[in-house]
Fold this protein.
Amino acid sequence: MSRGYNGTEYFRNAPGLLSVRLKTRLMWDGRLDGADLPTAVRDMVTEAHFMNADGRLIQERIRQIPELLALWREAFGAQSQPYGPQIFVAIAEFLKTLDGGDTWWTAPCAATR
């Protein structure tokens, strides 16, 4: 089983993140819309049985690590401060870059070439 906060086991294994941008539904039970990846990120980061993190703490951690704060300001502006919802959007945008390449599911069919 997947391990969550404090090493506790959760009752489901974590699905892979490669090509998550192509998923229409998220979570094993499909309860989240694949088009709303930031909400899934927020849930995974903040829910007690997953990472159990507080959004304010994440904002503070980014401020405390000069390299992360510099990257944040490069992406969002020189005077920008880390902000919870924007953090989840940024992580979701990163996840969209994790591409597993063409598979039988995503590759064009030979008949349509």
Q: What stands out?
A: The chain has one domain: 5-112. The CA atoms of residues 13 and 59 lie 28 Å apart. Strands lie at 25-26, 32-33. Helices lie at 37-46, 55-64, 66-76, 84-95.
